[in-house]
Amino acid sequence: MVYDSDVMALAGLGVAGEMGVKVPDELSIVAFDDSVLTRIAHPAISALSRDTFAFGKQLAEVMLEVIAEPGLRRDVKTATPRLVVRESTAPPGAWQEN
Length: 98
Hints:
The chain is mainly alpha-helical and 98 residues long. It is built from four helices and three strands; from the N terminus they run αβαβαβα. The chain has a three-stranded mixed sheet with strand order 1-2-3.
């Protein structure tokens, strides 16, 4: 299951535990933000990670360009987030082997 925030992923991990669903044996969980919450959870939650400082710098530069030239249209490419695999995910099909 992919959550669009770390808080939601942590809540999902808690609900899975309450329901007796084993993570990652029966359910894999991935978060979107990669905050400290993903690293302190048990099991640690896999997450998409990005360089937020570089993204902020790029955003500021583009905003300044648009302010200077209001009609400017830009096609901006950002770095692709990388998946940081932690203990909350299992390889595809791994649950079928048990």
